[in-house]
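Key idea: predict the complex, not the pieces.
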Amino acid sequence: MKLIVLFALLLFFQSTPMAKCDNYYPSMMEYSTRPLLYSLSQKSGKTINLSNIPDSEYEIFQNQKLDYIWMMGMWKLGAYGLHYDRTNQEELANFKALLPDFTLDDVIGSPYAVTEYVINPDIGTAQDLIAFRKRLNGMGIKLILDFVPNHSAVDCPWNTTNPKYYIHAPKGSVPPYDSNRYLPWGIAYGGDKNGAWKDVAQLNYWNQDLRDAQIQNLLAIAKYADGIRTDMSELALNDQIKTNWYEQLSSWGYTRPNTEFWCDAISAVKAQYPDIIFLAEQYGGFDDQLIECGFDFLYDKPLLDNLASYKMSNIWDYLNSKITYFPVYAQYLENHDEPRAVAKFGSWWQANAGAVASFTLPGMRFSFEGQWKGFKNKLDVHLRRAKSEDTIQDVADFYKKFQNILESDVFKKGTWILINDCSNKNQLITYRWYYKKSDGSIEKRLVALNFSDSQADGNVVVSDAYAQSGDNIVITELFTGKQYTRSASQMRSTGLNVIIESWVAQIFSY
Ligand SMILES: *[C@@H]1O[C@H](CO)[C@@H](O)[C@H](O)[C@H]1NC(C)=O
Ligand SMILES: *[C@@H]1O[C@H](CO)[C@@H](O)[C@H](O)[C@H]1NC(C)=O
Ligand SMILES: CC(=O)N[C@H]1CO[C@H](CO)[C@@H](O)[C@@H]1O
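Result:
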C-alpha cells in the first residue's frame, strides 16, 4: 500500500516541472562561433580556427566560472544561403544599419541554414571539435551545440535525395507556385502562417522517415556535445504543424502522428547519452508539452519582457504565476535574437538590476558574450562582427562579483522562495534561498533588489532568520562586504528594513 502511494507520488512529481530531485542551476554563455574566431584572428594577426584558439581565451572561458558554453553556429552551411544574404536588398539594408562600414566579406550567412550536421569546414575538423570539447571539459565546462529542427538549408542534400522530407505545395497545384511561400520546385520555404524565411526549406514532421532522419542528426550532434539547444522548438509539435501546414500535408495524405517528435527524439538521445541536456528555444504556450517530452530547460522570454516593461505589478504577478516553473526555465537578458541588455533596459545599471532579478531565480542562467562587458551593439547572426565598442568597467566589475555570489551551492542547488511579504512591492523585488549542506548547516541568502529609479525603503519578512544565541544576528551584504547587526525576531515578524539606492541589489547571507 505504502509502496503504491510512493509510486503515485513519484509519478506525480515526474509530471510536474519540479521533477528533478537533485536540482542544479547552471550558468551558460552563448558565443557566436565564427565572430569569436574572427575577433581572435583580428587580435592575434593570424587565422584562428577551433584548433588554435589561444590559451588566453581558454583562461577567459575558465575565469567566467561557467558550467556550459554554447558555441552557436558550428555546422556546415551552403552557398545558397550565403548568396541570398549577399544579394537580398532588405538584408543588405539591415546590415548597413547595424554595421555602417560593412563589406560583403563581413556577411557570413545565417548559421540557421544548415546543410549537414558536420562541422563547418571553415571552423575546423571533427577532430578539432572533439579536442575543443575535451579541453573545455577538462576545465569543468560543458559544451552545447545547435539543432535546427524546423528547416534545412535550401541546398541541403535532402532536397535532391529525399524531397519527401519537406512540405510541398498542396497536391494538384501546378507551377508557378506562390513565390512568397514556395521554392520554384514546390517545396515550402521555412516559416509559418505569418511568413517565410527564404534561405531555408520547411521540413515535414508528419513524415516518419524525416523524424527518424532527424533523430539520427541529433545522435550525431550528441557525439560532440554535452547539451543541445534546439531552435524554435514548439514548431515541431503536432499542434503547431497542424496550425501552419494542415492544408498542404492533408492533401498529400499525411496524418497527425500518434507521438510527439520531441518525446521520441529526446528519449532516443538520452538512452545513449544520459547526461546530455536539452535547451529549448520557445516562445510560449506549449511549455507543458515540451517539459513532458524531456526538455531540461526552456527559454523564458516573458520574464525578460516583463522586467523590461518596468511594470512592477506585472512583474510580481508573473513571478507568482511561474513559481513551480522557474527550475526548468532558462533566464536571459539577451542572446543573438534579442537586443543587447543595455539597449533593451535603457542603461547598464538597469541591465545589471535585470540580471539580478533573473539570475537569482532557479533555472539556467543564460548570458550572451558581450553582456558582461555592457555592450549595446547587436551582433547579427549573418555577420562576423558588430560595431565595435569599449567594455563598460562598472558592468565587468558587477558581473565579476555577481558570478562569485552565484557560485555558491545555495544558488546552484538550493531552494528559492519568492518573498511576497515585502512592504514596498512598487520598488522592490525580494527572494530568499536556503540550502542544507552535507554537514547539516543551512546556507541562506536574501535578495533585495531596488528595481526603480529612486531610493527604496521597505520591510522584508525573512521568516527563517535565527540567531546562534540571543536575538542578534549579523547579516553580510555580499556585493559590498558590509555587515549589519539586526534582531532576528524582528526580521521574522515585521521584517528587515532595507534602504536601497536606485537599481541597486543587495544580497545578504544571514
Ligand atoms: C586551422 O588553423 C591551423 C593553424 O593555422 C591550420 O593548420 C588548419 O589547416 C586550419 N584548419 C582549418 C579547418 O582551416
Ligand atoms: C532541389 O531540387 C529541385 C528538384 O529536384 C531542383 O530543381 C533544384 O535545383 C534543387 N535545388 C538545390 C539548391 O539543390
Ligand atoms: C541593510 C541596509 O539597508 N543597508 C544600507 C542600504 O543602503 C543604504 C544607503 O542607500 C544604507 O544607509 C543602509 O544602511
